């Protein structure tokens, strides 16, 4: 059974919106961490 084009487009739009929101959130967090590191509010991350 095939899926109507309208349903496929709706699903693609929802997936695109979720991915765009996720990328936007990741960039926002990375920007805040970089700002805090530049201002000396947090130091470099020590791993290990």
Automatic annotation (TrEMBL):
Domain of life: Eukaryota
Source species of the chain: Panicum virgatum (Blackwell switchgrass)
Protein keywords: Membrane, Transmembrane, Transmembrane helix
The keyword Membrane is assigned to this record: yes
Protein name in UniProt: Uncharacterized protein
Segments traversing the membrane: 6-30
């Amino acid at each position: 059974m095939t899926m109507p084009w309208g349903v496929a487009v709706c699903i693609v739009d929802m997936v695109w919106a979720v991915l765009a929101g996720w990328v936007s959130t990741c960039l926002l967090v990375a920007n805040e961490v970089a700002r805090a590191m530049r201002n000396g509010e947090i130091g470099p991350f020590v791993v290990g």
